């Protein structure tokens, strides 16, 4: 069973260091986006240079920029917990110690309007990867949530905090499971938070993650809202928020 998968008694056979060796001058903080069009802003808006290339069936450039006097790495990850954690481990091997992660989520409370910023405080572990990085349990806390909230407060950015439901089953978010997660206090659903929190705890890096609301599952018929239609200037704003957070973590 997957709940028996956590193993600290033996070594991993394949390690991220097999693919990613330390890079001199690699930034200690990295920003992760899930959107190619956001990553494409880095060389055009910020003059980023490619400091490394990741491989995930295709080439993923890792950019290095200077943002308000701080060196920051930026790259696009793949949607989903397994790929996101694997690439983060590789970037950690390159030299990153702290990650700022931002991406969209579905809401389980219709009162959360599209575009609302959410800081997850705990995640329901309905995915597979976290069970390889932490002992089996239904929930995992996000220990950086309080600090992220302090930074957003200092930036005068409104946000809310709450539990999130991390699931691999994008097309298996059934009405029964939506109702169960809502009853347990989840206000959002996404695909990576629990896994990133578990990997960070085991591997010794920090993850600061915020979400922005898109679609709505708290309704009789699923509402797309802004999903797939977020304006480019809004996407750039989310990136700049992440960079401002990266400067302070």
Question: Care to describe what's here?
Answer:
The chain is α/β, with parallel strands linked by helices. The protein has a single domain (27-248), classed as Rossmann fold (3-Layer(aba) Sandwich), CATH 3.40.50.1580. It contains seven helices and ten strands. The protein has helices at residues 36-39, 41-45, 81-94, 145-154, 175-183, 193-203, 232-248, and strands at 29-33, 49-55, 59-67, 70-76, 98-107, 117-126, 139-141, 160-167, 186-190, 206-216. A five-stranded mixed barrel has the order 5-9-8-6-10, surrounded by five helices. A hairpin with a 2-residue loop joins strand 3 and strand 4 (70-76). Helix 3 (81-94) packs parallel to helix 6. The protein is globular, with a radius of gyration of 17 Å. The relative contact order is 0.20.
How big a fraction of the residues is strand? 25-35%
Helix content range: 25-40%
Shape: globular
And the CATH topology? Rossmann fold
Which stretches of 5+ consecutive residues score pLDDT under 50? none
Q: How many beta-strand elements? A: 10
Q: Report the CATH C-level class.
A: Alpha Beta
Major sheet characteristics: 5 strands, mixed, barrel
Element pattern in H and E = EHHEEEHEEEHEHEHEH
**Corresponding CATH architecture:** 3-Layer(aba) Sandwich
Q: Based on helices, strands and strand pairing, what is the structural class? A: alpha/beta
What is the distance, rounded to the nearest whole angstrom, between the alpha carbons of the first and last residues?
Answer: 37 Å
Radius of gyration, CA atoms, in whole angstroms: 17 Å
Mean pLDDT: 97
